[in-house]
Amino acid sequence: MVRTAKFTDDAFLTAAVGLIARGGPQAATIAAIARAAGAPSGSIYHRFASRDALVARAWLDVHAGLRAALLPRLAAGDGAAAAQALVRWAAAHPVEAAFLLPHETEDLIGAAPPEDLRAAVEAAQGELDDAFLAFCRRIGAAGEEDVAFWRYAVFDGPIALLRPYLRGGEPLPPWLPGLLPRALPAGAEVVAC
Predict the structure, then answer these.
(1) Phi, psi of 3 (to 5 degrees)
(2) How far is CA 176 from the centre of its chain?
(3) First to last CA, the chain
(4) Which residues, 6 or more positions from 47, have their beta carbon under 8 angstroms from its beta carbon?
(5) CA 186 to chain centre
(6) Contact at 8 Å (CB) between 88 and 70?
(7) CA distance 21 to 174
(8) At which residues is the DNA-binding region annotated (predicted)?
């Protein structure tokens, strides 16, 4: 008779995401992840080579959802819609947003994820970066200042608005997504100050 696994990869990934969302990267120790999943620590090592490998897999899963929300808007050349999609994704996925958005990637995945996972993380981030640069070319934002403006408008500004709510575990105010279209109408031209 074949024994089925009592604990799944998803249980450990969900536990790591929740721990980091609430307590930051340092909260996701192997022991804490195992406790949150209701499993013995050893069962994590049957599925993941290390804590860094587990968190890198969680990062890839969460980042895939964010990319799915942003890439079509960037491809359409609509920076306001992309910024709003980021905020709406965060509102729909608050735990995942609190895991991903307030933290630097390196702080999350650690210094030593397996090379294949590090390469996958870099490829996923590269896909989003490439889509953003293609968006900038599409709308004619060619100079360093223009690209910096749009990086702030699409990513950094919305994340700064979200950060206090994500770190505090508070729901996003319903008016937050409405701020962005007023600030960045679709097709807006960059005007130097």
Answers:
(1) -85, 135
(2) 18
(3) 72
(4) 9, 12, 54
(5) 24
(6) no
(7) 21
(8) 29-48
Give the domain ranges of the chain: 9-183
Is residue 13 left, alpha or beta, with left meaning phi > 0 and alpha meaning psi from -120 to 50? alpha
DSSP class of 169: T
The residue type at 112: A
The DSSP-derived string for 177-188 is HHHHHHHS-TTP
Q: Per-residue pLDDT tens for 131-172?
A: 999 999 999 988 999 999 999 999 999 999 999 999 888 888
* Residue with tokens 């702080």, as numbered in its chain: 107
Q: Where are the alpha helices (DSSP H) in the chain?
A: 9-23, 30-37, 41-45, 51-75, 79-92, 94-100, 105-109, 115-139, 144-151, 157-168, 176-183
CATH class, domain 9-183, is mainly alpha
Give pTM, 2 decimals.
Answer: 0.88
Q: Is the CA virtual torsion 123, 129, 135, 138 positive or negative? A: negative
d(CA 12, CA 94): 18
- CB neighbour class for 68 (10 Å; exposed up to 12, middle 13-18, buried from 19): exposed
Question: What DSSP letter does each residue of 5-37 carry, written as one string?
Answer: PSS-HHHHHHHHHHHHHHH-GGG--HHHHHHHH
Q: How far apart, in whole angstroms, are the C-alpha atoms of residue 61 and residue 66?
A: 9
